[in-house]
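STRUCTURE:
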């Protein structure tokens, strides 16, 4: 079982009422009832990594998040083998005790696009669909006092737990194996909520935005990063089948339409701080994610189109106040 006692004590001190206890109970129940076929294997490898006795260390100030003091060569070789068993590594990059992990996504590029537009000092932060938690560490380095990620996929949760085990215990950075919908209902708990790469996967985007607003403090902010299409305030692209080989893409709005959605849900002072095309340099196959990636999802003759001949992914970052 994953130890969440540090999360419990930290959240009880920082979140309203008994919300931290509710989150702790939900996460423990999720781990306890996990029927993932690889869970036993993951826990055994995790124990082997802990047995390497890696000295805690953290530097999240640069593009590569570094955790754990560098191991001697023989132990580093073992760690390399163990970490490979947790593939695919999608969000990063990381250096873990001397092992460089070149992830599928250059998540540092996304962070560079938004970091100068949001103040995180002394803020309580939630990141929805955080993957292995790369951005959690960058948020903490930016001054956040409490950083929580939620991520339903066990493989990514275990990747985070490995990284967390290599960092000092006093870092208030946590990840729970939950979806937003599984979080206990609670009003006004977080100062900043990040939803990045999630909105277009939601069948009910308004419910997603409204729940986020309900969880923000009165002066809180949303950082929303989502795919967009060209068009006016009424333009929404809905793929009939797959989009870039993804079967779970439901609604891709234009910038003006997304602004209207945010206003409809009660957000104000909406800013668009970045718009950019996703390139095969930012999302690509690596030795740590050797499955299909963006180059396989685009039309090989025209990267302005997906393999289905729809417009290729363009992403926008919105920041708005609750």
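SEQUENCE:
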């Amino acid at each position: 079982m994953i130890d969440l006692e540090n999360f419990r004590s930290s959240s009880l001190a920082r979140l309203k009422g008994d919300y931290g206890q509710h989150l702790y109970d939900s996460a423990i129940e999720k781990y306890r009832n996990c029927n993932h076929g690889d869970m036993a294997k993951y826990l055994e490898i995790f124990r082997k990594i802990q047995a390497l006795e890696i000295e805690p260390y953290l530097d999240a100030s640069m593009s590569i998040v570094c955790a754990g003091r560098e191991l001697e060569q023989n132990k580093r070789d073992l760690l390399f083998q163990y970490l490979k068993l947790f593939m695919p590594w999608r969000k990063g990059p990381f250096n873990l005790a001397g092992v460089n992990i070149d992830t599928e996504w250059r998540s540092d590029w996304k962070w560079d696009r938004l970091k100068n537009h949001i103040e995180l000092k002394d803020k309580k932060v939630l990141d929805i669909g955080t993957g292995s938690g790369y951005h959690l560490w960058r948020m903490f380095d930016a001054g956040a006092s409490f950083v929580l990620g939620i991520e339903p996929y066990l493989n990514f949760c275990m990747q985070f737990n490995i990284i967390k085990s290599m960092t000092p215990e006093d870092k208030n950075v946590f990840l729970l194996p939950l979806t937003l919908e599984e979080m206990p209902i609670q009003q006004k708990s977080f100062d900043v909520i990040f939803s990045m790469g999630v909105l277009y996967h939601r069948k009910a985007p308004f419910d997603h935005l409204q729940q986020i607003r309900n969880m923000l403090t009165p002066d809180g902010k949303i950082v929303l990063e989502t795919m967009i299409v060209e068009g006016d305030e009424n333009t929404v692209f809905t793929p009939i089948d797959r989009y870039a080989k993804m079967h779970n893409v439901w609604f891709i709005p234009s910038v003006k339409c997304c602004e209207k959605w945010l206003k409809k849900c009660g957000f104000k002072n909406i800013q668009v701080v970045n718009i950019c095309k996703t390139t095969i340099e930012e999302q690509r196959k690596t030795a740590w994610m050797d499955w299909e990636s963006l180059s396989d999802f685009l039309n090989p003759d025209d990267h302005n189109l997906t393999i289905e001949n729809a417009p290729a992914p363009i992403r926008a970052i919105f920041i708005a106040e609750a």
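REMARK: The chain has one domain: 5-321.
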